[in-house]
Every structure is written in C-alpha cells, then in structure tokens.
Amino acid sequence: MWFILLLLVGVGAHMPKFGDCHIDTVKSWGVYAKVNNSYSCMLDVPAGENVSFSVSLPASYTDPYDLSITLFGHGAADIECDPDFGGWGAAWRRLDADSTKTIPVQNQTELVFEPFGVGGYRAVAACQGRADIGDLFNLTVRNLRDGVVPISIGVGVVESFTPLEVFLMSFYIAQTWSWSGSHFYIMSLFVTVLLYIVVQAWDARDARERAWTSKSVVIHLVRCGLIVNSVQFACQIMYLYSLGVPAYDWFPWVVHVALPLVVCILYSCSPWTISGWRWAVWVVFLVYTYAALWQGYCVPFAMVLFIMARNLARTLAPP
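RE: above sequence
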C-alpha cells in the first residue's frame, strides 16, 4: 500500500467534469465538452490567485479546426500569462489591453500522453497569470467551422478529490474515453467478463460443490474486476500507440495494468482466509479497490466489503 501511495505522489491529474462549467479554479478540473457553436466556462477566481487554464483536443481528432478563445472579466487586462506555462512562447502570452482577451490558438501537431486517465491530447492554447482583482471570469471557446469539435479545458492547479469522486473515478475515466471517440472499453468490458465466466464455469463443471454459490460468485466478481481493469487500460494504451501518442510512461503499465493482475493472483491464493492480523490485509485490499482500482467499476470494492461484513458477522456470531 505504501508503494502505491508513493507512486501517486508524482502523478498530476485533473478531476474530470462534464456538462455545465461553473467551477472554482482553486481545484484542478479537466472539463470535457463538444463544441458545436460555442462553449463557455465560468472560472471563479479569488483576488490574488492564478487564472490558469489550457485548451486541448483529443489525439484522435485530426480534422482541421478554427477556434476562437476569449477570456472576459474585471482586471483581465492586467493579467500577464506566464511564458513558461504550457510550453508556449512569451510573445503569445501577453494579454491585450481590453476587458475581453483573445487567446492565440495554435495548430499543434505534437501529441501529449496523460498517464493518470491514460489519454492523448493536442494542446492548442494555454494561459496562467495572477488575477489582482477577483471575479467570475468567462472563458469562451467558439467553433468557427461546421461540425462538432471535442475540447478539453484544464483549469486550476490544485489536485483534490472528494470520496465520492474517487469512488466513481472508473465511470469518469470511461466518459473521457468516450468523449475522445474511443468506445472500445464497452466491448472489452463485456468480452472480458463473458470469457472469465465461461472459463470459470468450465473449470467448475466437475467440481463437487456447486459452481455458482454466493461464495464463488463473489470470488469471481473480485477477480473479474481486477482483470477488467488491466485489460481496459492495456487496450487504451495500445489504442493511443496506434494514434501516434508517445505512451511510453511506465506509470500506467505498472499501476493500471500489472498491479491489478498481481493483486488478482495474491487474492486468488487464499480469498476467504480472514482472522487475526489478516484483517489488516483485508483493510488494505479494501482501500486499494476503492482508491486505486481506476477501472474496476466499483465491483471489487463492493465485493470485498461484502466479504469483510460476512466474515465479521461470522466472527461475532455466538458459537
């Protein structure tokens, strides 16, 4: 568990957000939207804090685009964008002397790999600068061509997740994949689950005990959730490779792909032995399935919680 926590220290991440965009920029958000005509994001920035945002396209989007990006708010004319933020040159970043700011949009070909949710992006604009006057700034992205353009707006710099957001992270990540045009996760989810059930049923066909007792179903679901996590992330990484994204980072392969398989093997060794100090192992397992199994869809967490409750009830039951 300490190893997992040490790995997470070096990971930068936005909290995925879909739909309306009215956010506190103190927290780091990744806003995902599809722009037909225009899309506006309201940034609540206190005085003295940074206005910080970047606009990106998914790596899968290769069509020509013509975007207009403006920032409106009190004191916006005094905000000077940090030349080192986002890799843009200083000449691009100085804002005009008007309340409505036009942010230069660049046609970039460089693709960037994001290991936290395993995605690929193409940066098109960015700015970070101090807001001397606090305000509700309006960041607007206009699509000047026909069609729909998927955009990602990274806002804020402080990484923070609520317990509910961590619990639902599997679904948020799946949404970002869908937003980028990658829908393979639906197929890989069902294929993995179906194959696992078939294999388990085949292995249990001659077993003395029934194959689908409540105990065996729970065991299968925990294992299946761990395997699904690895398969979906591995498929997404290979999908990004096919798009030319430099997905060479070791983090997703270790944390998202290899670690769940290792945990699955360890869990399979003795899934129902729980007494004495082994309770601590189950607590660690529970924390792992809750906080670090990013594509388990809550299934392993719920099943491990069920196992712990079941065994606790047996432990406390009178002889």
